[in-house]
What does this fold into?
Amino acid sequence: MLGPDLVGAVSNGRLLFGFALGLILWRAAVAAYNFFLHPLRRFPGPMFATQKLHERYGPVVRIASGYLSFTDVRAYKDIYGSLAVRSKTNSNGPALEMPKAAAFYDPIDDVPTVIVNAGREEHQRVRRAVSQGFSEAALRQYEPVIGRYVGQLLRQMHERSGAPLDCAAWYMWATFDIAAKPVFGKPIGCLDACAYHPPVVQLLFRTFGQLAMTRHKAFTDSMVHHRLATDKGRNDLLGTLISEGSGGQRLRFHVGRVRNMAAALSGIMYLLLTNPGALARLREEVRSTFSSAAEIKIGPVSKLPCLSAVLSKGLRAYPPQPTDLVRVVPAGGGVIAGHSVAGGVQPWSISHSRDHWAAPRPSPERFLASDDEARRAGNRLEALQPFSSGPRSCIGRPLVYAEMRLILARIMFEIDDMKPHDADTSSSDWIRPLRGYPLWDRPPLKVRFTIRT
Ligand code: HEM
It folds into this structure.
């Protein structure tokens, strides 16, 4: 006769076995559905290294059971344009846009609604409200703030002439300081401290957990309260949100976005370090245009063709936004690059696609060509859209260009030589070990600068 312990163990074992079998059968059924019945079954590609898959399978690859990745340039307009979707039931109604995929934009509970993940109507309202804070007029208003922190960055580089500096960190500190002043009305002092403000970034990006999010929220709330208590009438980024009634809640996108800019600057710096010809031409352009650092202002730097080409080259080779910008085709369907499906464009894949670029490591000069000249040389400049396109494209683009141009022009003007710090091997081959999460995880980029005498 079996004892009660043995009976219990056998029935537990059966239960476990039944559970495991159920799990296997369920996974098999899902796999069979994905392979034989799923509406996207005709598109090739398992999930790994999207760019390589595009090289192998072409401009449309199935990167997950329900997701496609496109490198066809028509996909920008079809996916992100405001006329992208006219549902069958709404064929005469207002044009819609493809909604953002919740799995990518709202992956966990309690993600606060910010402009990036807001639904269409709320997004339109918030975008209208913040657009004033990103306008040309606002940019002119920020120019002295940007100039002050760029000056501080250069002064601190002067003080450390010849010593290895981690550019990736220094660009973060400068861009954070610049971003904080017009929003919170008071400095956060990253350049002063030569450190990130601990609650803002260290916890958020090292821990990347609920605790970090809570600390980050408490910090931004305290800064917003300070601003609300001290200065209500200013017509800047936060001022427009306050007068519209949205408060500081919508500004939590800020940290990640500013980090994009620092990532772009680091990528551009690395590419200049490894391309001495482009570095020399850029330095020559800046030095022959300006006779003092004080002349380097947003207006004149935006007219330097070589500088613009270097920015494009950097943004192409190293798109600061690493993740796919995934959209969902709503009920009623949509057509993307000639296919009736859903999908997104992965910035890295499209900006490295051999379908659009003649050489894998092109020089910045290709971006000086007109669209027609470029096309004849085998390059499709419209494939480069690092800020995305359509009604949900990057609103910070003019600010980003102004800041990057000012920083690079000042560096070219005031620095005679820059070299990777050889002892740190990660700096002499910096791009290879990068890891793309929602933001880039970057190793330090250590560089030795020699100040102009
Ligand atoms: C090189 C730097 C940057 C790049 C490459 C970049 C790129 C992008 C991209 C690709 C999007 C679309 C995201 C999506 O579809 O989900 C976006 C959206 C956005 N970006 Fe940027 N960004 C940069 C810097 C900034 C900065 C510095 C700010 C502001 C301080 C900013 C503010 C925004 C906002 C508010 C949105 C959401 C726009 C909307 O949904 O209407 N960005 N950015």
In short: The CA atoms of residues 326 and 344 lie 5 Å apart. The chain has a mean pLDDT of 75. The pocket of protoporphyrin IX containing FE is lined by residues 115-116, 123, 127, 179, 253-254, 257-258, 260-261, 264, 320-321, 325, 386-388, 392-396, 399-400 (CB under 6 Å).
